[in-house]
Amino acid sequence: MREPVELRRQRILAAVAARGSARVSDLAAELEVSVVTVRRDVEDLAREGRLRRGHGVVRSALAAQDVPARPAPEGDTVAVVVPERHSYLYESLHGAREVLEAAGKRIALHIAPQVAGAERPLAERALADGAEGLLLAPRWRTRAEEEADYAWLAALDVPAVLMERRPSPGSALHAMDSVCSDHGYGAHLAVEHLVELGHRRIVFATRDDSPTARTLRSAFARIADAHPLVEEWAWTLSAPESGQDGPYTDQETAELSVLLGKVGATAAVLHGDVDALMLVQQLTDSGVRVPEDCSVVAYDDVVAGLGTTPLTAVAPPKADVGRAAAELLLRRLGAPRHGQGPVRRVELLPALSVRGSTRARLGGTRDPE
Q1: Strand ranges inside 104-260, DSSP E
Q2: Using CA atoms, how far apart are residues 207 and 216, in angstroms rounded to an integer?
Q3: In the chain, pLDDT over 70 holds for what percent of residues?
Q4: N or C: at which end does the chain have fewer Cβ atoms within 10 angstroms?
Q5: Are 208 and 239 in contact (CB under 8 A)?
């Protein structure tokens, strides 16, 4: 499906704002469109005063002193900053939209490109445009990227709420409102479901390139280590590109089918849905049947039910996270400046949907290779 023009231009603006300048050819490669398309977008954005053009180079208009300030939008505006190509958080966005529009707020959506630090210039632009509050879900691929954002987020002088992000205790961002799924509970649901079906050896294949992914990896390890009925477990990256904080051991980057055989596992938990569906296909190609040979639980439940074998999945309450974050932000916006009450951290519990990819273990544990 072709990307809307305005969304593509938002991505161009975000990329340029994050870096200060960018080459047209680099933008075309990142956006996966032609140089001609980007050049046309840049020309239109330059005419609107939103970019400055050079020979093959685009520069941010924010640094130009001669660019007139854009007028603040009419009405009360809340800016929402989410990463590009992130279906999980887009569901949270839709939940927030319902609440904000019902309250008469205008939403200014900003899509952050896949560049470290891309959210800050977008937030600054939104505030310059008159936004009275912010909902944010920074990508934070690594812990270093997360910590690099703490100082400017803590210094925001308007109400702001993090969605699906929970800063480290004691950090500079510790006192910021946030709404999260309880991913530790989600991990518990997955493990308990498999254990109740008689599975005693489990492999976890997750991403490791977001706060959610890092929380899941830690939770699975903690739960499996402490569970009296889990005899053996192992963890690996769900895809080669899904980890940023390495280095990883050979086992932690092993193919799932290989690791299942090594551990003698009869079950796996996979994060997220797309990786899970692809891994199930790879298992099938390797002669591992789902669920006959290996029960599979996916984590996200955005498209898990659409596979040839619909996947049992843990579903974080994505839309409800957005709704709760928007409600919390509205409370802050409506409260007196010095009477807003304590910082709030809201946790919502995921749910498990049982489908055709899990079944009771038949016979004994698979023999490790």
Answers
A1: 106-112, 133-136, 160-163, 177-181, 201-206, 232-237
A2: 9
A3: 91
A4: N
A5: no
Query: What is the structure's pLDDT at 73?
Result: 43
Q: Pairing between strand 267-271 and 201-206? A: parallel
pLDDT band at 80, cuts 50/70/90? very high
- Residues 6+ positions from 169 with CB-CB distance below 8 Å: none
Instruction: Tell me the residue type at 248.
Output: Y
Q: What are phi and psi of 227, to 5 degrees?
A: -75, 125
Sign of the Cα torsion 223, 228, 233, 239 reads negative
Q: Answer whether residue 32 shows pLDDT above 80.
A: no
Q: pTM to 2 decimals?
A: 0.76
- CA nearest 278: which of 263, 251, 257, 261? 257
**Phi, psi at 351, each rounded to 5°:** -130, 160
Please state, in angstroms and rounded to a whole number, the distance separating the CA atoms of residues 260 and 203. Answer: 7
Rounded Cα distance between 26 and 23, Å, is 5
- Residue 61 structure tokens: 């208009």
Question: In whole angstroms, how large is the CA radius of gyration of the chain?
Answer: 23
Whether 349 and 317 have beta carbons less than 8 Å apart is answered as yes
Tokens encoding 288 = 């591992």
* Conformation bin of residue 129: beta by default, left when phi > 0, alpha when psi is -120 to 50: alpha
Phi, psi angle pair for 312, to nearest 5°? -60, 135
